[in-house]
Design brief:
264 residues; alpha/beta; two-stranded antiparallel sheet; 19% strand; binds dicarbonimidic diamide
């Protein structure tokens, strides 16, 4: 018997205008990765400022990340947040990292926002505008890369995620380290140009060029507008308070989820 004609389905593949060429992805196998949008990096008196940086330079990133976060939530795309920081007893802090940069306040020292880069402290947490909601995985990482000493790889494998749309701060440090780690693990990475930021605009620009250079040696870059144009419309069953598919990435998912926090 002849096979029955199949109905034309909505294409699953999406295509983003990107550098060095179009980035294709399927929303169901893609996660929005939001790197370290923490008060300690974006607000005064935190880790970023103790290293002598002007933290106001990171503020313009927030609206672009928020627009992508809202879009991902509306279509039920996986969302993963990361936070750089350490255990309260600092047993996971290398001496090299503690003293590096000769900061005015070291990791673990008290600040107006609590102890610098220590888990559970106000400054360590994600800024209000981008606060995780129920079902979104939160990866606590002691290093710059989000794969080092975390279960991110396990969550992505379990969730069937093969592509990452990467946002956050800072472009040349934690974003770059994570994209390099992801690239070596076989993930397709699109880095959002206006959804990432640095205390050094020239490093931001160069870091983005390094990603898309040589035919996309580490991946692709695109603006948040270009990504939004490629995303499908909101799913009729998704709301901003419904757990997203990120929940399925969590080994600790439960029927009454709160933001899922995983650490080293
Ligand atoms: C830094 C980060 N810059 N999240 N961390 O120390 O990029």
């Amino acid at each position: 018997m002849e096979p029955l004609p199949t109905q034309a389905a909505e294409p699953l593949q999406r295509s983003v205008t990107a550098r060095p060429y179009a980035f294709t992805f399927e929303p169901s196998t893609t996660a929005l990765l939001i790197i370290d949008m923490q008060r300690d990096f974006l607000e005064p008196a935190g880790f970023g400022e103790t290293l002598g940086n002007d933290v106001s330079l990171l503020a313009p990133v927030i609206p672009a990340v928020k627009s992508l976060l809202d879009a991902a939530r509306s279509i039920g795309m996986a969302v993963i947040h990361t936070r750089e920081g350490h255990r309260p007893d600092l047993t996971d802090l290398h001496e090299a990292k503690r003293v590096r940069g000769n900061p005015t306040l070291e990791i673990g020292d008290p600040s107006p926002n609590g102890r610098i880069l220590v888990r559970g402290e106000y400054g360590h947490d994600i800024i209000d505008e981008l606060a995780p909601i129920a079902g979104e995985a939160v990866i606590d990482k002691p290093g710059k890369g989000a794969f080092y000493a975390t279960d991110l790889g396990l969550l992505l494998a379990k969730g069937g995620i093969t592509s990452l749309i990467v946002t956050g701060v800072t472009t040349e440090v934690c974003v770059h380290t994570t994209v390099r780690e992801a690239n070596d693990r076989g993930f397709e990475c699109l880095v959002v140009e206006d959804g990432t930021g640095s205390y050094f605009p020239e490093f931001h620009a160069t870091a983005l060029r390094m990603i898309s250079a040589q035919g996309g040696i580490f991946g692709w870059t695109a603006t948040s507008t270009e990504v939004l144009e490629a995303l499908p419309g909101p799913s009729p069953t998704s709301t901003t308070t419904t757990p997203t598919t990120a929940e399925t990435l969590s080994p600790t998912a439960d029927p009454h989820p709160t933001p899922v926090t995983t650490g080293a």
